Structures are given as structure tokens and as C-alpha cells.
Amino acid sequence: MKERLLIADVRMPDGMRVDVSVVEGKIDAIGPDLRAENTVARENGNGALLLPGFVEGHTHLDKTMWGMRWYCNSVGPKLTDRIENERRFRAESGHDAAAASLALARAFLQMGTTRLRSHVDIDTDAGLKHLEGVLKTRDTLRDVLDMQTVAFPQSGMLKREGTVSLLDDALHAGADVLGALDPALIDGDPVASLNATFDLASRHQKPIDIHLHEPAEIGAFTMNLLLDRVEALGMQGRVVISHAFCLGALPPRERDPLLERLAQLNVALLTTAPASVPVPPLAVCIEKGVTLFGGNDGIRDTWNPFGSPDMLERAAQIAMRYDLRRDDAIAMAFDCVSDAAARGCGFADYGLHAGARADLVLVDAETVAHAVAARPVRKLVVANGRVVARNGRLIEDL
């Protein structure tokens, strides 16, 4: 017998009152007055707003201390200070990536996130230990949380001997995406670093998601080198550039040709919308046809005491960073943690339409903008056709 669920009386983002029929984890139909068979489990939405399950496009589940004791941060100001401090802390404290990632992943589900991309440190000291922990979490929640893991060299590709070999091992072990970091400013040789990255990705037929913090002209130089390789190797639609701070610092005459190349090669951008550094211009990216989506980065870790598994909160931060105030503009911020994030990460069968995976969130809000601004309790969260949270509380058997 097919598993069926009917969610009655909900409002689509356009205001239309509908029912949603779910069969075997997929949306079977959306429309008014759908007929329920005797075998249907039924939920009454009571006119709540229906949203698609949220997408976290960039986080670091392995690093988090969510739900643990407060970490007192006294680290130095440089990127390398934070990298070395974190490596030392994790080794000395015995930080457990399996337990940490499971706690935060469950919190994401509770708040309505059903698709998630997590970068995971691949380190010459720790080896694949952190990845193994996150892969356990991915396996534990595989029926409800669609999780991608990125094998991420937190110290760069070339700085520590053996990193490329470990990344090769990580992709063999089940990592979905190959990460990279600042080829010029961390590795000191952007050509060799990018060559190693694209060679490894090509051999494994894996997509790439690179952290690019490099500023202004340095970042633009690296980005052009990267785009040259995307074009030469036919990797259109398989590369994400995370952060891309340089695009927020360049004048339009230098920035716009880069955005046009990004659009032509279908290379997506990820922003966490930080307040302290330049960010890629959202409106111009949309105008040029570039996919720009959102994520938290680290949440409550040695780098950063902030962040939350609530993607409505991240959408609100994106809206504030880009000074979005109109309802239609705030809906663009929500797109960054929903449709655009699904496109950027390559999550298939996403959205509110028949045939999509049944990832649904109900909230008491009048519009999408209202939901982003008010961040109401999640009345119901459905992941892959299964009710996983109700009235802000996770179902305990997950």
C-alpha cells in the first residue's frame, strides 16, 4: 500500500488556498478540495502559509559546538590564526564531529531545513576523522535530510604535504563535492592550486565549491583563472564560488564582466551576507543571470559565536545586508535560502509542485516577507513526505 499524506487548507505564497497530497515522499497534487482516500494520514493546516523546505547552502556541521558549553573566543585577527586555533582546540578537546554534526543537523530539521550542504575539514593532522563523523550523521538522517558533504582543505591544497592525497581519499570515502580555499593568499600559487583542484575533481567527476575570501583585484585574478578551467574542462553548472568578497569591492567596469562570465558558465555564488566585508551585489547578480544563494557558514564554533539553524533568520540577515524592505524584495532574500540555493547546490526535485520531493513547512504568517521578518514557530515540517517536527518540536524518533 502506498504511503499517503493529505495536508488540508494551506495557503500558497501567492495566497491561493489549497490542499497538498503527498504519495511516497513526493508531492502528488496541489489544489483546492483534494479528495482523501481512507488510507490517508491527514494534517489540517488551518490556513497556515505553505513554504518549501529550506536549503542551507553553506555550513560546517563538523566544527559546531551547538548545544555544548560556551567557547570563550580570544583568537587573533588573521585567517591563519583562526585555522591554527581551531586545529589545536579540536585536537586537545577531543571534539566529536559525529555528535556535534548530528545535534546541529537535527536542529536544522526542527526549524524547517530539509536540504543542506556542509563543508567538512580534511586535515593532515586529523585525516578523515571529521568526515567520518559527518558521514555518520548523513547516514542517520538519510531518510529525511538530503545532505551534501564537501571535502574541504581548511589549510589550502598545497600548504600541508599530503592534503591532495587525503582529499582523494575523502572523495573515495563518500564526500559529494570537492572544496578548496584561497589559491593565491593561502596556497601562494593560484595556478598550481587550481590545477590540483580541477584535476582531482575531474578524476572523480565531482563538483567543486571553493572558499574565495581574496579581496578586490587578487580575487578577480583568481576568479578568472578558475573560470578559464571551468570553460576548458566543461564544468559548467558544477562549480560554486563561496563568499566571493572581491565582487563586492570591484568597480562595476571590472565586476560586471566577471558576472557575465559567471552567468555564461553557470557558476553559482554563495554569500553568508556578513556585515563586516564586501558582498556580491544581489540585484546585479539577478539582473546578469547569476545564481546567488545563502548560507550560515560556521554556527557557534571557534571561529564565530553567531549563527543559527533557522534559515528564515539567515534570509532576514540577507535582507538587512542588502537593504531589502519591500515585500517583493524580501521574497528575493527568501529565494536565497530556497529555490536559488537548491539550484546552486544541485538539489533535484525541489519546490512546491507535483513531482517534487515533499519537503514542506507550515507557519502562521500572511506572506513570505512576514515569515522572514517574524520567523514564527514552525507549525509543521515535512521532510521527504514524513512529518519530522510539529509546533517547533522535533519528532523524537529521528
From TrEMBL:
Pfam families the UniProt entry points to: Amidohydro_3
Matches recorded under InterPro entries: Amidohydro_3, Metal-dep_hydrolase_composite, Metal_Hydrolase, Metallo-hydrolase_Enzymes
Domain Amidohydrolase span(s) in chain numbering: 143-389
Xref: SUPFAM superfamilies: Composite domain of metallo-dependent hydrolases (SSF51338), Metallo-dependent hydrolases (SSF51556)
One Gene Ontology MF term: hydrolase activity, acting on carbon-nitrogen (but not peptide) bonds, in cyclic amidines
Record key words, sorted: Hydrolase
Protein name per Swiss-Prot or TrEMBL: Amidohydrolase family protein
Organism from which the protein derives: Paraburkholderia azotifigens
